[in-house]
Each structure stands twice: as structure tokens, then as C-alpha cells.
Protein 1
Amino acid sequence: MKNNIKVERARMDLTQADLADRIGVSRQSINAIEKGKYVPSTVLALKIAAVFDKPVETVFSLEESD
Amino acid sequence: MGSNYLISHKFKPVGWVLFVAGILAGLYLMFTDYEVEILNVKVLALYGGDGIFSSNEGFFKIIENGIFDELTALSIIIGGLLVGFSREKIEDEFIYKLRKDSLVWALLFNYLVLVLAIAFIYDFTFFDVLVINMFTPLIFFILRFNFIKFKNQSGEE
């Protein structure tokens, strides 16, 4: 699964730590999700999308291998 | 997260102290061939004899024993359990998955090492393998969990 969290963070001028604080997860989680090492649960994906005020599909999208 | 086997984060520092102190004491014991005879006290043996080669075995005996090695082993195990099974400061789904993955990894890696040790280490040296192997599942688990956690911390901002 691909994501553009990094782009969206830059757009809102948020650090990984800021984003982690807003949704109450560890910074490691944001880092791992951003690097594509961890696929978040639906709940967490929805929370991240909510911070960016965008539909979840624009933040996360399927890859061919999924 | 649905992880009801974890205890409070407050136990983590205590756990680290016990764990590290225990490992240092354990290394000291290994290098002195377990000949540290301090803290000699009378203890209750559920089953055993008066010495290694004693034929006088039986249940519930009061024997004299140096308890430094027992305290060391308990310190490593209790400290390791406190470190490995106390909550992180922020406990979330990624940490939860990382902990479970690390447990599986540690168990498999431990047995891989043990298989190699059984195949290639003989005689009295194997005694060391048995001793060390009492603690390696916990040690591998803690090392791997904290290593991956640390690696994910150093992300670019």
C-alpha cells in the first residue's frame, strides 16, 4: 500500500511527532507507516486522513502487488 | 490496544536495572566458573541431594547453598519480564505488532541457535549452552524489539 503522508505533512507543516501527537500514536508508528513498513488498521488510516481533512483514498492507495 | 498481559510502564526502569545487573552478575559467574560462594544460607530444596554426586536424594530437604547464582538468574528473568512486558510510553497498534513479531522472531532464532549448539558443541562446554539458553529467549526478544523500535525512531522530519 502506498501513501502520501509525507506530502500531506509538508502541506500542513507538521513533523512526524506533531502528527503522532494529534492522533495519539507513537512517532515510530508514523515513521513506519510513512516508509511503507507498516500497514495501519482502518481506524488509524481514517484518523490520519481526518487530520489532513481528506478522504482516506487520497492519503492511502493500493499498489499492484496488494 | 487489546493487550491485557502488559503491566504498567512504571515497571520498565526497575526491569532494566534488574535485567542489566543480572546479566553482568551472570557474566561474572560464568568467567569464575560458578565458584562464587557468597551469601551462604540454608534453603529449602523441594527435591535433591546434599551435593552434585550425592546419592542421598530426597524431598523437602534443608540444605546449605550459596544463593548468589539463584539471585542472579531470578534478577535476569524477572527484570527481563518487566522490561519485555510493560507498556511503552505510547502503546499503539504498531508497537503491539512489533512486540508480537519480536516474540516469534526470538523463539525461532533461539531454537536455531540451540540446534546449532546441540550439533556442534560437546562435553562440558555444552553446560554453558544450557545455562545461557535459559535466558536467551527473553534477551533476543528484548534486543530485537528495542532495535527495531530505535530504528524507526530515527526517521527524517
Note: The longest strand of chain A covers residues 2-3.
Protein 2
Amino acid sequence: MKGMNNVNLENLLKTRESVANGELPPYRMFEVEGEWMFGETQFKSTLNFENGSITLFTDQPTPSGGKGNAPNPVQYCVFSMIACYATTFVTIAAMKGVEIKSLKVKGYSKVNMKAVLEIEEGPVVEEVGITLEVTSSASREVLEEIKNLADKKCPAAYTVSHAVPFKSYITFTDG
Amino acid sequence: MKINNVNLDKIAETKEKLQQGIWPEHRIFEVSGEWLFDKVQFMGYVEYDNGSTFLISDQIYAFGGNGNAPHPLQYVVFGIMACYSMVFMAKAAGKGIVIRSLKTRGYIKVNVKAALFGEDKPLVEKVGIVLEVDTDASPEELEEVKILAIKGCPSAYFVMNPIEFESKVVKTESAIV
């Protein structure tokens, strides 16, 4: 069963069973640490994964007070959303036995700069969108059905379309 | 003037241009990517002022991926905490508060049963950020900066508020080889 759409269904189904049996916890926490930089970029973080790790940098563009030396955080957010949505879409397709021959994705986020810079009150982010360009022998109706399921099951899309509790804390350290 | 590695003069200039209508009120941030049939599952391409980069993501092994790149939700957490840290530092700089160091931890809690079985509970239960700050500013001053950061951070905004989300699927024909 391995290999359909580059999704290992065998592993996924095993995990599904383990969650159903209570052998695996029903929640997953994704945690990341990072720090502010005082050099050519503004923020960096190392993400660890099963087979390695990667260090990412971000920087604001010049008009927003940075130097434009790395992608800005909203670009990372849009990337994370299209990656999460694509992963959910292709995984659901694989579970339904639908072969995806190719998938290209475009995503965007529309930010109100006047609200960011406190010039006016109002929604900071006005809309978020994603377009999937799919090559598959499945019908348009089947692909639409998979998309509707992905809308419901993608955690990143959920975070955008729902109000999620957000907590932030400050702790002090001595220099 | 530069405080906390934030160029305040440029921000003031941008604010003025926005007020005068020289700059557009909205910025659209676009990213594209594609599904891969190789060692990782997804690759995106991001352009910025002084360059461009490819970003890769992969599911963990237990969820059908290869574990060869960060999970998309790690990027979600990274994006949110980086965005929040930037707005926090810019707002602190705007108030003349010098931050000697800032370490940030972020998390997202996902209900796996809702994702795998459609359990009728919130798919994402909470998102959190902890800022570890070294500064001479008082806790009250930092609380004030935090409130401004929450209000002005696009990522915190999209977590806390329901936003219009539109997804479209376009079916294309296979290329004839």
C-alpha cells in the first residue's frame, strides 16, 4: 500500500488504529523554540524532525523595519498553510484510492497595513485563500468532495477559519 | 534610529506613506508550492527583498510521510512565533524600550481524533507563545507592549479570529509526453 501519492497508507492506518485503541494520545503538540537576532536577520529557529533538523531565518522587509534578508513571518505562515492543506488533501485522496498525478498550490494572505501600524482599527488580516491545481483521473466532483473534507480536517485551515484560544506570556531573565 | 534591530525611521516613513495614500493599504503575501513524489512531500518557493528560498515539509513516518523535513504545523508555529516576536520587538522599540535578548517558545495543540475520525471537537485546541525577555523595562511596560503586539500581529490575529478562508480546486489535464 505504500507509495500512493507519496503517502504511506500502511503507517497511517496503523497510527489510526493505535489512536482508536488509546495506545497513542488523542492530542499532538507541535512545539518550536527560537530567538531574536541582532545581526543581518531578525529571528531564527531550528526545527527538528525525525531524520534531521533545519534552521530557519526571518526578517522584515525594509519598509517594516528589517533588512529584507530572509522571508517575512507572514510568508512562512502562508507556506505552512499551503503545505498543511496540500498534505491533508493528498492524504485524504490516498485514503479514498484517488491517485494524484500532480498538485500545484498557491496561497495568499491579505494584510491591512494600516491596522498593523495602528493607523486605524480593523481586521489585521482580511482574507486567506488557497488554489489547488490538480492533475488526476478522478472527476471534478470527487476532487471537490476531497477539498471539502480537507477544509474541515486541515489544522492550518482550521486555525484560519475559526477563533482558536491564543495565550501569550512574558517571563523575565537577567542579562 | 535603530533599537532592538528594528529600523524605526523606515517604519515611520512607511506609516507616513500609508497615511498620505502613497502606499497601498493592503499587502498580499503570496506563496506557491507543489506536491513531490520523492523523499519529502511538499516544496514551496518564497521570494523576499534580497533573495529567495525553497522550503520543504514532510509528514512524520507514523502519519504516512517520510520524516525527512519539518511537519507543516512546525512551520505554522514558527510563522506565528516569529511574527509575534517581530511585532513585540517593533512595538517595544517604538516605545524606546531596549530588549537585550528575546527567546520565544510556541506550541499548537491538535486533536488527532478530530483529524483522523472527524470527532466533533475543535481540531486545534489552543496556540500559545512564551516570550523570555531580558530588559530593564518593568513588567507593566512589557504587558503594555504585549497588548499592542497581540493587536498588531497578523499571525496572532488569524489564530484568534475567524477569517474568510477560500479554497478552490482546479482540475488540469495531464501533459502529453
Note: Residues 34-71 of chain A form one domain.
Protein 3
Amino acid sequence: MKGGADRTATAARAKRVALFVTCVVDQCWPGIGIAAATLLEHVGCEVEVGETTCCGQPFCNSGYPAFARPLAKALIGCCERMGVDALVLPSGSCAAQITHYPQLFAHDPAWRQRAEHLAERTFELSQFLVWRGMTKAPGRLQARVGWHDGCHGLRELGVGQEPRQLLRTVAGVEFVELRAADACCGFGGTFAVKLPELSVAIADHKLAQVEAARIEVLASGDASCLLHLRGRLEHRAVSVRTMHLAEVLAHGLYG
Amino acid sequence: MAEHLPMQQFPGNARAALQNDAQRRALRAAADVFDERRRTAMATAPDWQLWRQTAREVKDHTLLHLDHYLEQFERNALQRGTRVHWARDAAEAGALVLGLARQAGATLCVKSKSMTTEEVRLNEVLEHAGIEAVETDLGEWIQQLADEVPFHIVVPAIHKSRGQIATLFAEKIGTPRDADAEALTAAARDRLRAKFAAAGIGISGANFLIAEAGSLLILENEGNVRLTTSVPRVHIALVGIEKLLPRVADLDVFLRLLPRSGTGQMMTTYQSLLTGPKERAGDEGPEELHVVLLDNGRSRMLAQDITRQSLACIRCGACLNVCPVYQQVGGHAYGSVYPGPIGAVVTPQLVPLANAAQLPFASTLCGACRDVCPVAIDIPALLLHLRQQVREGSGTERAAAPRWFERFAMRVVAFWLRGPRRYRVALAVARWCDRWFGWLLRWLPPLRQWRKGRTAPRLAARDFRTLWRERSKP
């Protein structure tokens, strides 16, 4: 599901776009959703927000794929009804989950086909923006910014160069490449509460590099990684702000 | 005899390992060094993605026709005078090797590093029968002296500093406490040479079996495999049935991938290709060469499309070095012979699933393991498959560790997520609870666990949909 010619072309042509902000953004950090919509409109897309809930990843990752299937069906159905050209998520992890929907319906050819149709049109925000033609981010933010690669976006969708490229174009941003930028933050979904001490220890390895780099803002494309990293930073009283990529790229444009 | 930690108690083992600062420091430094070496070695191989695709195709082909190639190997090995034995499980393998050792009249056996012999607990079998088994790989010997199981599948004592090893040697073999690395290895060499000379049998594993030649290939850096396989009169190799390759030519890609992935070397110092016992007095090599082919659960993995790829593993250890979990807790916490990501995949398929039910969950699913795997095993996909097996079982098999409460909670949450209206109602209630009873929620799971070292997230005052509606108003 990395960026083949077909996928980049689909993104480049997409006009009507469904934005699925993910459940974490919806409930904990809704501003990220507004920022993402602002950016999509900036590249000339019409943004639609469907009646969506959750992509079902927590169930798949905990060993209960049966509970994820109805959620996947609901999301597929919702996107079909909207009849959009693309589905964009401000999350590499949830976008990757949707690209895995066909495997979830391995034994159900009809749903498998519908899942494939959606998977081909599903994009992580930064990749979509770059493939849709964004060369300069519209926001403005005076800060030293470091980037944390979300594992699923990086390793399953190949999101790596796009967010860096966009971050460097934000007026005022001094981009700092962190050591171990691609190291896991230790969130891991239910892993974070099943093995909390281990989850936090993995975060500390990452945050040691964050502190060493003396950045002011730690940005990522996944709100769930940031929830975890922010929780740890606050607990340790480290004054580094966490921001979602969309918030940095559109900073100052919405409120 | 060195014992493993209880596999069922991974969370407790991991917590204990996190308290061991010295081990964490040594492990982190060593894992970083090995990963750095791997990266450097791969940087000289721009085609490595193609190599690993080729290697995986060879493995997939071989595994699909394993019956054919095993028989071909047996025929060709017999023709060269190698005796081939088949072991269904660990008990059969132990009995077979013990029988051969007794036949040879051995009281001392030298061993080169072999995870497969660890898997069947061969040292224990031999020692029970009064046969001394001495590990001759330096790291493995250190672990044996310390009465510990290997910490890593390639670097058994990766977690020990030079200082710790000096102390251990001082206590066990009387070297000075301040001995440097050179003095320590010289002392080890001195002790081990005597063992090589006196041993009646040598025991090894093998990295590859070659069907068309009836040969086995062993890679190493210390020269101890050379001595183990050539000095004692009788040699026994215990090898998993998945180590087979059809042709000598197939070694090409594997000999490029394995040393680079494992230790960051272009090639290992020694590569021993054994084809039959010595034919004439004065030749190098053992008088008798035995190969014990071990199944021990492997044919079960072979039976399913999804699990078959577990058998493609060439035990390079690269996935351990990059794993954020392994880097923190190390090998012993897993409580299994094979630790790390590949261990979390292989172990639950080798032992009864209920015994290893914790291991598939000992991962953040970050996928770094899949990225570095020289045979492109989709470890995260296998972990997800095993997680499902553990929680739900499959077909006729019962779930290994059903968690009734967790399942119930998941079912409830999934129910409230199934429709947008339900979802909004549920979240409105949650928001109300968060506002008035947040203090209570933070004392209950899962926030209770979350708050171990992290501040708890709060629900936003208004959800995205509300903000979006306001924004869209003319």
C-alpha cells in the first residue's frame, strides 16, 4: 500500500474528500480535525465529514478481529454513501488499518471487494497533501520542531519524507531531525495499558533524544503516539509541546 | 541446570528486567552496536531488498516441498556416509543423541552454539546420564559458567559487561579480577582446548542443510565449530527440518544475508561445510557423522499458509536488536528459548499455546522487525494471528487464554462504536462522567494503568463534529 503510481494519481485527482478524523482526535483533540480540514481545502478539495466512529484497530490488535468487522463495514458503507474520491485520515496508524480491511474479509468475497475499493482510496494526511500538490504549507509557527515517525504510517504506508518536506516549508519553523526519529514511542495501543512500565520505558528512550535536541515542539502524524508522549512529558515536567502535524502545518489559520 | 523464567509471567519478568540498570545499559549499547553494524553492512548492498525477496522465494519453495527435499537430503547424506535420524519431538531427539553418545562411550561432549539443542534441553539430558556437556562458543560458555540460559540467539552473553565477565571468571576459573578482554579469552581458550582434546563426541546445530549434496553448513567466528566438528571421533548435528535448502547455489544469497543481518559482517570468519565423515585415516573430520532432523512442532507451522513463514527464519537475530521491547527487557524476560520478536512468534507454535499466551502480546507492533528481517517474515501479522488464537481459538482449538472480562469490555465498547448515534450517546455519557467522576475513572482500569508514569488524557469539552458544525454554519 505504499505510494505506487496509481495511488499518487488517485490523490492528485481527488476532488471530493471524506475526512475521518479518528476517534482519538474526535474526542480528545478535535482541533486537529479542523486543522486537517483547513489543509485539505487549501489544496482545493471539498471536505465531507461522514458519520464515522472508529476504524476498529484496537480490536484487531487485541485479538478480537470479529469485533472490528462491523466497524469496518460501517466505515466502508459510510464512504460508499458519500461517494467521495478519497478518504483521508490525520493518522498513519488508522489509515494503515483501513488498508488492511481486505484481510479482515478474507473469507467474504463481496465485502473483500468493497474493502479493496476503499483501501485503494485511503490516504494518510501528509502523503495526500504532497501527492495532491501541496509544496508549501500555509501555516506559520515560530519554533524548533522535531518529528516523530508513527510506526504504522512509516512502515506500512511509507510516510516519512512527506511530513518532513511539509514541515520545512512552514514559515518560522526550524526543523530538527531527531536521532531515533523512527524509533517506536512505546504506545502500541492496548500495549500501553497492558504493560505500562515497559511502554513508558520505551517512551523515555525516545524522549531522551527529544530533550537532547532542545526542540520546542514535538510533532507527529498520529494523535495516539502524541497522547502517550505528551502524558509522559507532562509527568516528567519536561517543557516540550506536542503538536499534530496538521496543527503545525495550518498553525494560525484556524481557531 | 540453568532455568528459564516462567514464560506465563512475562509482565512480571519485564518489570523486574526494567529494574536492572546495569543489564539495560549493557544491552542497549550492544544492541545499538549490532544494529549499526547491520545498517553499515546493508549500506554496501544496495540490492538487499532483491536479495531478501530471492531468499524468501527459495525458503517458500523449499517449505512447500519439504517432504521431497528432506528425502533427497537423506538419500544424498547416506550416500556420503552420514547417518540420518528423525526426531518427532524434543524427547525423541534427546533419546537419540543420548543413545549415540553412549554408543560412542563418551563421558565428555563438546558443543558448538546451537539454539536447537537449547530447544530440546540437550545439555540436561546428557548431564542426567553422566555425560559432561561443555559449550565452546565463548558467549555460550560464559552463560554456562554463570548458570544462565542464552540471552540472545546469536550473542548469548550480550547483556554482560567485560567487568562482569572478569568477576565471573575469577570466581569460576580463578583468573585475576582485573583481567582484560585478551586475558579472559586466552583463559577461555586454554580451558576449552583441553576439553576439545578429551571429548568423545562433538555436538552442533547447522545453519543450512543442502538437499542435493547431503551437506550441512555451519557459520561461526571463533573456530570452535571447526574443532567441535573435527576433533572428536563422533559428530552429531541436531537440526530443525526447516534449515533445508535445495541446492548449493542457493547458499549464495543466504551467505550474503545472514552474516550481514546477524553481526554486520560481509562473511563470517569460518564457514564449515560438512559432507560425510572422513574417508581415510589422516583426513580431517569425524569418523562418524550423524544428523538428527528435528520436527518438534515445525510440521504444525508448515500446515497453515499464515504460519508457514515462521519457518523461513534463519536465526540471524536482527529482529531482536531493533525491537523496542527486547532492547528494554532483554532475552530472559521472555522465558522462552527463542526470545524477541521471532521468539514471540515461534515459541507459541512450539510449546502449548496456553503456556506462551503472553508472548504475542509482548510487542508494540511497530514493525521494525519486519523491516530488518532478511527473509521478510511478516512478524507483526503473525503476532496478530497468534493474539487471535490466544483470545478466540480457531476452529476446533479452544482459546488458550480467554479473558472473559476483557472480552466482555471489548464487546461493550464495540457495541457502542457500531453506530454513529450510539457512539455520540456513549461519548456524551463518558464526557459527563469525566467531568464529575474523573477522579474515580482515573482510579479504574484502563486509566489506572495509563497513569503509571503518564498524565491521563482528558476528553475535549466539545467533540470534532460539534466544532465542524459550527465552522460550517454560514
Note: Chain A touches chain B through 63 residues (CB under 8 Å).
Protein 4
Amino acid sequence: MSQNVQKIIMLPGRKSAQPAPPERISSEYTATDRLAAWKARWGIARMSYRVKPGLYALGSPSASSPVFAGANYTLSFNALRTNLKGLSAWLLVLDTKGINVWCAAGKGTFGTMELTRSIRQTGLEQLVSHKTIILPQLGAPGVSAHQVKAYTGFSVSYGPVRAKDLQEFLRLGGKATPEMRKVRFNFTDRIILAPVQLVYYAKYLLPAALLLYLAGLKNDAALTVGALLAGSVIVPALLPWLPGRSFAVKGAAAGLAAVAALSPLLPFGPYQLAARALVYAAAASFIGLDFTGASTYTSLSGVKKEMRLATPAQALAFLAGLVLLGARRFL
Amino acid sequence: MILKYLRGVATLKLDSAKCIGCGLCLNVCPHAVFKLESRKAAITDADLCMECGACALNCPTAAISVKKGVGCAQAVRMGFLKGTEPDCGCGDDSSCC
């Protein structure tokens, strides 16, 4: 918790209570915040990055200051407060169980009911003279604006997708440009998500590679690591340039590219190499398909369709490769 | 560069007769799937839809329907194994989200 945000605690039964005079604060992004972000991206004690839900005062907010709602994931909260530099505002932090706004909205924890509960419990109505609450646009999959209005009297105004556009949004009188409304998935957006995927599959594939190495199969140990990197790093990095729209196909292509790149170092003939290409492309395809979860544009209907075709194909290619390698041994 | 997912799979439906042209769907859609045309919402390209459900939930006249869900392979696999709806399990330190 940053000390430059003051927590307002409303005691039950003190409905007319006025907030304590808020201390003057800055919206600094400190080295501690940077470390927290880095650790969260690498999955280190990720779930401990929670902010206490409730109402916070940023700067010296008055009854006419804007109200911003957010998630209680530290990275979300830091994005909100640091992008409001120089402003006075009320920050209403919902209990999203430490999950970012978009994912929480998908699950409904950043939702109509939690927002309603939070508005009521914090006594927001008594603190501000207006009836508008600004939500991140990505909270919309969980929040029904007209229902919130019916339950609490507060109008939901959907702000921009990215917190860094908030000041411009306010300057435009609470209007977002079409560009501010669009989710992006550029190289930086994708590559910061790669470590989570890499760490997740490394848990299984690095021990597997070690076993192969100890069994004297050094080349297969290298190829296993290659497939891991292909699926979890090459797929995010080269997503727009890998062939097809299907993530399984993109993953398979990355896997084949990894085998091809390593092939000059491998002592295999065409048969051995082809059999291994099947095995490792299947593995990279499997990992690549999982990147749909991190992507910002894949639909459930699409993923289901893709999995119906890709899962049997991956299993078949993997097994066929193993059978080919095994058959060779007995020929 | 616009990244597009599989063709013709999105379950998004818009009933123009019910639309009052408030434009809220344009505000909440993260992929600019909607546009306003002669005071009614219209779909630009349904292949851009990721089925997040924001438009349907925020449409005051229920003119929009979409089968909402997470486009996450891990969630679909978990749902299949547990016999539940796809659930990304983001609450328990998984790799997704």
C-alpha cells in the first residue's frame, strides 16, 4: 500500500460523517511499485498483490471531485492513481479478489452487485454532491450501467481502456476518442505476458528436459527447451506474423521453426528430424494455443472450435512422432 | 495492424427493431464492432467480436445478445475436465489473465 493515498473508513451508523481532512499527496510511481509489477509479471507471490477494498482520497478531493472505480489488484490500482497525477479524486476500490479489471469483469467480481455494494457501504452518496462514477471501460463486461443507476442512483460513465488516457478523457469533458476505446495487443502488450506462460510450462518441461539430458538424449533435451520457448515466447512475440488465425497453427509453426533453427546442430537424418518435428511442433502448438487466454481478441466460440480440431491433431502428431522414433529403433 | 480471430464463429446478434440508438455499445466495445448508422447501432465486422458481453449487459433495451465467455484454451480445458462451464481460474494463481 502506498502511503500517498489516504484510506477513508466509514463507520457503520455514522451516515452523516464527513471524511477526515485528506492529507496532500502525490501520485508517485516508486521503485517499490516497479518491483511489485515485475514480481507479479513473473508470477512471484502474485496473489499477494492486493489493495484493501474501499474508498480512497487522492489529493484533496471535495464534494465535486470525480469518483473513479477500480479493481483491488495492485497493478490496476497503481495504474489508476499514478495516472491521476496532479488531480484530486475519490478512488472506489472494489473487491475483485486481487484480479485485474478486465478478468474480474469477465467473472463478474468487478460487477453490478459489487459496485452497488461498494457505493452503499462506503457512503459515497454523502461524500460527493454529484451522481457520476467513472469506470474503466474494461469493467463493462461485468457492469450493467442502467442497473447500477436503478440500484444506487449513480450514473456510470465509461472511461478509456487505458488509465494513461484518463487526464485527456477528463479534458474532453468525459468523452473518450475511438482510439481510447480500443484494446490493443502490440508487441509490448504481448511480450510482458510471455513470462507468465513461460514460467507455467517451464515447471513441467524443464524437469522433462533434465531427465532427457540425464538419459543421454541431449538433443531431445535441447528440442524440449526449444518447443517451450517457441510456444511461450515466439508465439507472443511474432503473433501477427505467424501463419493463420488459429493459435494452434501459429504455435505449430513456431515449433517447426524452432526445430528447423536447431537442425544444423543436430546429428539427425531427414527421418529422425521429421519424427521430432511432429513431436515438438505438437508441444509448441499446445502451449501456443494457451496464449489465447492472454490475448485480447479471442472469443470463447473461436477457442472451442479451434480446440475441437487442434487437440486431436496435437495428440495424433505427438504420438505419431513417438511411434516413428520407436519404430526406427527396431528396424 | 488488426489481429483477427477465426471467421464466422462469434455468437453476437443485434436486433435493430429494439435499438434506440443510445450508442452505449459503441462506448463499451473494446474492438469497435459497432457503429451508429441513421440513429441505430449496426455491426461493422462480427469477426472482431471477442464475446466479452459488455454490449449485451449494457444495452438498456436488450437489443444485443451474445454468448459471453472467456476465449481461453486453458479455461475450456479445465471446464471440460471438471464438467463445468469454461472457467479461467484466475483466482488461483493460474497463468491466464
Note: Strands of chain B lie at 13-14, 34-37, 40-43, 64-65.
